[in-house]
Amino acid sequence: MTDLILQSLYSGILQGGLYALIGLGLALVFGTMNVINFAHGELVLLAAYMAYMVEAHLGVNPIFAIPVALVLVCLCSALIYGLLSLVRVDRELNSLILTYGVAVILTNAILFIWSADPHSTGSDWLQGAVVFGPLFSMRGQVLFFIVAVILLAGLWWWLSRSWYGRALRAVSSNRAAAQLMGINPRATEIISFLIAGILASFAGVAIFSYQVIQPASGESLTIKAFIITVLAGMGSIPGVLIGGILLGLAEALTATLGSSAWQELVGMVLFLLVLFFMPNGLFGVKARRG
Amino acid sequence: MRSSKSSALKWLALGVVLYGVVPWLLGDSYVMSLTVAAMVIGGIALAWSLLSNLGGMLSFGHSAFFGVGAYVSALLTMRAGVGVLPAMLMGGVGAVVASVAMLPVLRLRGVYFALAILAYSVIFRVLATQWESVTGGSAGLASIPTFPRVLGMDLASRRGSYLLILTLLILFALVYRYIRASHYGMALRAMHGSEDATRVVGVNSILLKALMLFTSAFMTGVIGAYNAHEINFLNPDYAFDGIWVILPVVAAIFGGYRTITGPVVGAVVVYLVDQLIFKSLIPVGHQLILGALLVAMIIYSPGGLVPLVSKKFFAGASSPRP
């Protein structure tokens, strides 16, 4: 039993790295534009399907899909930004409905192009076992956990040290003051969308490398990303990583101790509990009550 | 005086068309069953826009109310022998009870509210799947009783079920109109301007929002129950499907969510065009066009198309009013 629990803790942490990648993209855009990009999960899924295409048609390791995914997903992400900047009235709610519309478009486009069949990788290399003592995982899992941590650390460094990174944080903490200091908020907004696209590309390829993908999974990815944003609170990258790992752990433990059918439930319950009892998240500062 | 007389005549004509001409023209055809399905969407769209227009709350989780209403009503008729029509009302009540669990959400701002409601909808779907002894699990419930005969009219026929949903929608629209015109409506309008300022003058804004949530949940629950008895089949993935949110949102935005009739008209137009045209063009993934429509509407005409058109016919009757 302890072995089982240890194993599920281990897989939960690995899964959490992936969740953090997805969550951070959503959180960055939310921070700079105060818009939840409801199509974020679909962007991740799009990258996953790119990985599937590259594997199925070129017969190479899906990791090589990352450049293709980067181009396509960042393009889509920029396009969403372009559409959002056209919204004039009632921005908060209309932006949400707009990205919801984009999510519907992407889900159905994926359904149209690749049909509803689930897909997973056939690469032996990615699915090969990596064993640490009693702990088992697939090579893809470990690889992309490391990639996730490197990306998060790099982004953390960039946000806290570089000029653009600091501009981005300035805009999300006080837009008007940042503008007075000579920061162009539009530039930071588009950068945050592009970074979200980059993170989504890596996350998508990661998902395909050790999980099953299907057109319907985009929405649940968006919800998970939002759960992590809520758990982490605004403006904390280590918070996002911990939030992602918490969600991963909660899901893995539920699957081991209860049944995998309850796995979906636990994230939602965690999300609602944090919203109700810790409205600023575990590490955040901003209020979200009305 | 003359204008109110002529507008009364117009409403009468509309009544004759809806209750007489449409069922006579469409009969028991395929288009009639599509129309009924479109009106189901219209009912949810009406309830959805009541919450977003009057309550100022955007919901992505109305499938929660739809599914709960459907399950409560279906189970009451199948397990407890309750008549179909009273069970449908109880379905609405069941959705209200479900929405009581959501009351903590009312304190949250827009985005958080929208996604918290969605989380509830997922939770209800998982519960409906897992609570097998009552709900029949993922296999679902089959042969749910259909509508009875009322006053010699067989409500189970296509024409009868059309008349039933039409009557439900008209009742809902009247309730909506009554709330909007009442002093609650005025307080809700004031809350749009500034919720804090409204609270300062002594309006219990949380209570008002809760009432709007209950009303919207009740309507959606009754519609869900109607649909369950209409198609006689239910399973969790169907009852809590995201489609019960996507279509009503598109319909409400298309028709104008700040009007009463707009969402219903929008639903009929959007659904029929989707089923008759888009579906034959793109068999799988035809909702792509609906998503594009939603995006285009938000950018170019967030107030909806129907208000623009109907202004010419019903002068002022359905002009946008929060």
Spans where pLDDT lies below 50 across 5 or more residues of chain A: none
Count of DSSP strands of chain A: 2
Strand order of the largest sheet of chain B: 1-2
Number of helices of chain A: 12
Which chains have the largest interface? Answer: A-B, 47 and 45 residues
Strand content of chain A: under 5%
Spatial order of strands in the largest sheet of chain A: 1-2
Number of helices in the DSSP assignment of chain B: 15
**Radius of gyration of chain B in whole Å, from Cα?**
19 Å
> Largest sheet of chain A at a glance?
2 strands, antiparallel
Structural class of chain B: mainly alpha
Rg of Cα set of chain A:
19 Å
Helical fraction of chain A: over 70%
Reconstruct the topology from this structure.
The complex is a heterodimer of chains A (290) and B (322).
Chain A: H1 2-33, H2 40-58, H3 66-84, H4 91-114, H5 124-127, E1 129-132, E2 135-138, H6 139-161, H7 163-173, H8 175-180, H9 185-210, H10 217-232, H11 237-257, H12 263-277
Antiparallel strand pairs in A: 1-2
Helix pairs in contact in A: 1-6, 1-7, 1-9, 1-10, 1-11, 2-3, 2-4, 2-9, 2-10, 3-9, 6-7, 6-9, 7-9, 10-11, 10-12, 11-12
Chain B: H1 2-26, H2 30-54, H3 62-79, H4 84-100, H5 110-130, H6 132-135, E1 149-150, E2 153-154, H7 158-181, H8 183-193, H9 195-200, H10 205-231, H11 236-239, H12 243-255, H13 261-281, H14 287-300, H15 306-313
Antiparallel strand pairs in B: 1-2
Helix pairs in contact in B: 1-7, 2-7, 2-10, 2-12, 2-13, 3-4, 3-5, 3-10, 4-10, 7-8, 7-10, 12-13, 12-14
